[in-house]
Amino acid sequence: MAELLIVRHGQASFGADNYDELSDLGRQQSRALGDTLRGLGWVPDRMITGSLSRQKQTLEEMGFAGPVGEHRGWNEYDFHDLLHSRFGGRAPRDVITDRKTHFRALKDTLADWQKGGISQARESWVQFCERIEQARVDAISVQAERVLVVSSGGVIARLVAASLAIPNDQMIALNLQIKNTSTSRFVFSGEKFFLHEFNSVPHFHNQERAELLTYS
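and the corresponding structure tokens:
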């Protein structure tokens, strides 16, 4: 069966004015993953990212040659928009800049969004799910044995949850544990599509690189 390997982007610039840029650590993580995949003999014959800079930069740092497709369905939900919308237009500063406060607020916000709340957000939960499914179908619609996608944690968690038919609240739990530059592997053939591996970080499985591991 063919493989769809989805990578969460490297560490972005949390709390910065422009979050959508890899940190120096995020670039190191991405290079380590690319080196490890090549060492394992895994080289993609199709590559896709969303339109976000942190996704594109991750793939660039991984160092694979060849054309790269783009599908906006692989973009993360706009968590800044969701948080600001939930708080009436402007979230408190610590919700944006303090990690613990941010992720507590995000967990509650996602739960509300999934239930149809936060109606003023630019994208609904249903629209988010629909575009991910469109991106998935597009990724596996072309003859390719190894498809590499660089995406984001929420998208990966939703795709895993959908493939396993698990409840929405479990998708949130999956989302918050996905590591930067982790890989989640799906196998597919025709209408068959299965999760094979989730949130794997073989490139950090040694003492030298273990300190590169991050979740946000």
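(Above: one complete record from the training split.) DSSP finds nine helices and six strands in the chain.
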